[in-house]
Amino acid sequence: MKHISKIVIILLAFWMLCPSCKKKEEFPVVPKIEFKEFTKWSNGNTDTALTMVISFTDGDGDIGLGDDTMPPFNPHGRYYYNYIITYMEKKSGQWKYYLVFNSATQQYDTVNFNSRIPSLTPDGGNQSIKGEIELMMKILRPVDAAYDTVRFDAFIYDRAFHKSNVIRTPEVIMKRR
Question: Are 79 and 72 in contact (CB under 8 A)?
Fold first, then answer.
C-alpha cells in the first residue's frame, strides 16, 4: 500500500510539472500570415460586407500598434496602417486593381481596406505569438457595379517594419440586386 501511495504521489507530481516542461513555440521574427476564410454578410437581397479571417505568427511578438501616432506611425506616415488590404475586381476575366482619384494628392490610389491592428505583444518572457485576425469590410457593392467578383491582396507590418508575406484571397462573388 505504501508503494502504491508513493507511485500515485510521483505520478501526480509528474502530471502537475509536465505542462512547465512543454516546449514553447518559436517562430521567425518576420510575421507570416495565411488566409483562413471569408464570411459574407447580407441584407437579404444584396451582400453588404465580408469578414476576412487570417492567421498569423510572429517570433518577437511585435505585432500591432497601441496609441502610436508619432512618425513613422503618424496618420500620413507609411506605417500608420499595419494591415494592408488591397481590393481587386474581375473584369472580362482579368483581375484589376480599382483606382480612385485622390484630389488631395492629385494622384490615383487603389481602393483598400487598410487597418490598424492593436498591440498584441504578450506579457512574459516568450514573445512568440500566433493567432487569428478578423476584419469586417463593408462592400455595399463592388466599386464598378457591372462586376460582382472581388478578391484581395493583404500583408502586415510589425513594429520593427518587417513585412509579412503577401497573401491573395480566393475570389468571392458578391450578390447584387
Answer: yes
